[in-house]
Amino acid sequence: MDRVTEWLFRLENRLSEASARIPCRRPWVAAEREEILRVAKACLGIRDEWIPAVRAEVAGEDRQGRVAVQRLRAVSWDGCAGAAHLFLPLEESRSKLPLAILCCGHGKGGKQALGYQQMAWRLAHLGCAVLVPDNIGQGERVAMGHADAVVPFQCGLSVQGLIVMETIGWLNWVLADSRFDAGRIAAIGNSGGGTLTLFFGALCREQLAALSSSGYPSTFGFVAAKEKKHCHCNLLPGVVGSLDMWQLYGSFAPKPLFLFQGKLDCLFPEDLFHSAARKVGEVYRRLGAAPACRTSVFPGEHSWDDGRREALAGFLAGALGLDAARAPAGPLAEPFGNCYDVWPADAHTADSLAVQLSGVRTEPCRELYQVYAPYLADWPDPPLGRVGFRQLAAQWEAFLAPSLRLGGG
């Protein structure tokens, strides 16, 4: 067995061992739930004092039928430019609007991906406002860097942690806006948006009235062990051996939760979904709230389709008190556009933002292995199907709880 192969066997076995040694933390026990949330924040590098105060202004407004879409330009952290669409139903109402935060995954164009806009369009016709922010490095914010960002990890942060903190900032912005009903705020997301809603929902369980996460529910061990080059927002430092997904989804109990995926999803196996769903359902049962937990497998592949958008709209109609009979008069005629004509040249990148938040100012790392497996610098780096050896080994090291990493050797 050559050196590279032997090292991967050792790392792969360590991932399996770590998955089997996850502490038994029960989300239905308040003290253990708080420990789950503490560990999740530590893995992602989240600190309460780093949650940004989002400031947004309307750059323009478009209207189609009974829906207005405001194009928002925002600043989250100082120097960090953001962009979001805010879908608003146009019917006059004296009451405050419920609102759903639609958490984008890796759909092309971020918030401008047609599937996200169709979902927001449908919900707005039910009388629900919908906020669709571009995540760091996605949509209009591609100049920030995302898929290959390394410096956030070097600084003790993570790309996903930055995204979660900024989304919490957007939630606080919503809660401070008198147009919206603070008791009827939900979050929804698929795929990468499923990752975001997993953490966002657990950490904001007190503020959110309902949550849906799809195209992701499985296990952290399964995600970590994939032999592919991960987008770096998928890397969750130290999570394998510390937590599993069902514990975080279960932390949202007893509030309404909808987990689902496609039967033909090639990214996440149906069997793992059913296992995670069973465990989350047990949390709800323990809290006497079993009817509030809904799980489904739909025909189709990974992305939202019309059937899943309809089911998700029905779930939110029940959870937020929407009028499910109010359907759109027709399909979305054309996607809504950019918030910026030109992205600000002086806006933060993911790297510079991480340095600003953490205060860590060292020579920036450009490769993931420089952070998690620096001993690999002198090793050969053969391609392994869809990923190089150094990248794969660094990913596996990153996911492992620090006490379980192999280090050098």
Description:
With 409 residues, the chain is of the alpha/beta class. The protein has one domain (3-404): Alpha/Beta hydrolase fold, catalytic domain (Rossmann fold, 3-Layer(aba) Sandwich). 36% of the residues lie in helices and 18% in strands. Strands 1-2-3-5-4-6-7-8-9 form a nine-stranded mixed beta sheet, with helices on both faces. Strands 10-11 form a two-stranded antiparallel ribbon. α5 crosses α6. The mean pLDDT is 94.
What are the defining features of this structure?
409 residues; alpha/beta; Rossmann fold; nine-stranded mixed sheet; two-stranded antiparallel ribbon; 13 helices; 18% strand; globular
SSE blueprint:
Layout: H1 3-20, H2 30-44, E1 55-64, E2 67-75, E3 81-89, E4 97-103, H3 114-125, E5 129-133, H4 151-154, H5 159-175, E6 180-190, H6 192-203, E7 210-214, H7 220-225, H8 245-250, E8 257-262, H9 270-286, E9 293-298, H10 306-320, H11 350-358, H12 369-372, E10 383-384, E11 387-388, H13 389-399
Parallel strand pairs: 4-5, 4-6, 6-7, 7-8, 8-9
Antiparallel strand pairs: 1-2, 2-3, 3-5, 10-11
